[in-house]
Amino acid sequence: MIAKFKPTWMISEIYNISPTKLDDMGIKAVFSDLDNTLIPWNNPDGTPQLRNWIKDLEKNNIKLVVISNNKHSRVKRALKSLKLDFISRSCKPMSRGIKAALKKYNLDRNQVIMVGDQLITDVWASNNAKVRSVLVKPLIESDAWNTKPNRMMETVLWKLLKRKYNDLNWQEDIDDRD
């Protein structure tokens, strides 16, 4: 059961993921959580670093799609200036949102990665959908009220994961392992 929470990669922040490496790996799309992964949960304005990363993805013909548990209006408002596609009410940790995005963009599981800041929603949803996952550190230390219980449960999950797996280390960038 604990394997459901094991990320494929652990990278400090989403902007460290090299679009060139993704392209070399055959990745056609990055699915990303919204809050505290792509943008801080309490600040919808994208940083210059995010905008540059999005441009680099575009140069490598890699699509960025936000997959969020938030309602449509919240995600649309948050992404207005970034003009990104999204799937709202994705029901993570279920795989519904990821599967919907795979179908919508006619992609195979091995052509995408899912990036998120939570084991209980993002990584678990990725593993349920059989998609490689990237766990990132939250952009800011505070969380919305509805995320706080997940963070408490993650403390226990980390202890169990570290006991079972000795390869859980933060990396600078992704590598090509499956």
TrEMBL record:
GO-annotated molecular function: phosphatidylglycerophosphatase activity
Keyword Electron transport tagged: no
Matches recorded under Gene3D superfamilies: HAD superfamily/HAD-like
Pfam families: HAD_2 (PF13419)
Keywords: Hydrolase
SUPFAM superfamilies: HAD-like
Signal peptide: none
Full protein name: YqeG family HAD IIIA-type phosphatase
